[in-house]
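Changelog note: in this version the structure field was regenerated for every chain. One regenerated record is shown below for reference.
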Amino acid sequence: MRALAFNVDHVSRSPASAPAQIRREPATSAQHEVQAGNAHRTPLVQRSEPARIAPTEVAFGPFRLIASQFLLLDGDKPIQIGSRALEILIALLERPGELIGKQELMARVWPNVFVEPANLTVNISALRRALRDGQDGNRFIINVPGRGYCFVAGITTAAAHPKMAWS
């Protein structure tokens, strides 16, 4: 999705009776933020280091994440979950036990797109629902209000192998 801006320098008029011709140009992110009324919000920060590579498989509780296939399993049963929520889970599992800021998560999941923080909250909620977080004594993701999220459950990592048994 490209934001379009009207640049006044490119308005031209033909004869007096013709309407003004306006050439559309892609807006810079700063122009888009000002035009959208979001100039007061913190812009997304470009990542200066490459993303860490997640292990091929990560197991926690009854769940297994196969990041290379973008697949979350409950035992051997695939869990239906949105791609954004799954991307959040992958980011949290890359750095278990570490607080990951809301801005960093949003920049990772929605790169080069401005989104409201509520989008992150909705996807975290969907992720918690899918993991049954908070039920039966399971606790996977905690929120540090105003700062970010942390994956707190114990994990086991391994290379993907179709016949690997997890205990």
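Spot check on this record: The chain has a mean pLDDT of 73. The first helix runs from residue 29 to 35.
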